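Proteins fold reproducibly. Consider a sample protein:
=====
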Amino acid sequence: MTEPDLRTLLDRYIEAVWNQGNPAAVTDFITPGYERHLSATAPPLDAEGQLRRLKGIQAAFPDATITVEDTVIKGDFIAFRSVMRGTHQGEFMGIPATGREIEVGLLDLIRVEDGRFAEQWGGPDLFDLVRQIGGTVDAGS
């Protein structure tokens, strides 16, 4: 795919899954063998796991939108920096809804295969997100 094609793919994904609040649309953008890497030590999520994750985030922040700030494309990889904005309206990571507005940065790297996402790394700054909704994180443990 060309660089403009990859940028269009990313824009379509952000619009459908996030800005229109339709996590099930993720299946239109990922390969059958999709892997979502959230940690260097945890096994990656498959397509079902990623869908559950997206539904959980969007249940907690149903008005969440993502704005892509920067994009770097090289070969079959898309790297992007974005900002998620929304309101904490449901439980998230054990924290009950607070009604607080959030604005959190995300960094993602996606490998594209045959016009679909095959692997994805990164995500939101969870420390900052938890802090914004009134939770505490002990970074020393």
